[in-house]
């Protein structure tokens, strides 16, 4: 499990480092930018092997590709679980555009990533999760 999370984090870092920069295409890019946007999240809890849903807010962006995200999710089945945490993910639309593609679904913006959550109602225990944001609300 730890090896999988480490592999995902290293792959994301490798994508950032491996992007070529051409001198004739230089545009002033802010390496770190505070930008708030929110959307609906669907998460897969890796320890419990189940799906949960909630909302998340992008707090910051790194090189316009990586989102730092705060999240609040609740269980589908109505159990008294309130999970809160943070995560790091890739903006799929921006990655496709950086690779030379064109994102056809303009109203749907997607991002995927990993997060770490804590249940607020029980003892504090870290819960790793994979998340997907499909529709951004603001």
β-strand number = 6
* Cα-based radius of gyration, to the nearest Å: 16 Å
Instruction: Enumerate the strands of the largest sheet in spatial order, edge to edge or round the barrel.
Output: 1-2-3-4-5-6
Largest sheet: 6 strands, antiparallel, barrel
**Could you tell me the mean pLDDT?**
76
Count up the helices: 2
Outline type: globular
Supply the helix-strand structural class. alpha+beta
The sequence of SSEs as H and E is HEEEEHEE
Helix content: 10-25%
Instruction: Determine the strand fraction and express it as a percent band.
Output: over 45%
Low-confidence stretches: 17-27
Gap from first CA to last CA: 33 Å
How would you describe what is shown here?
- It is a single chain.
- With 138 residues, the chain is α+β, with helices and mostly antiparallel strands.
- It has helices spanning 2-17, 92-98, and strands at residues 32-45, 50-62, 66-75, 82-91, 111-119, 126-136.
- Strands 1-2-3-4-5-6 form a six-stranded antiparallel beta barrel.
- A hairpin with a 3-residue loop joins strand 2 (50-62) and strand 3.
- The radius of gyration is 16 Å and the shape is globular.
- The relative contact order is 0.21.
- The model is unreliable at 17-27 (pLDDT under 50).
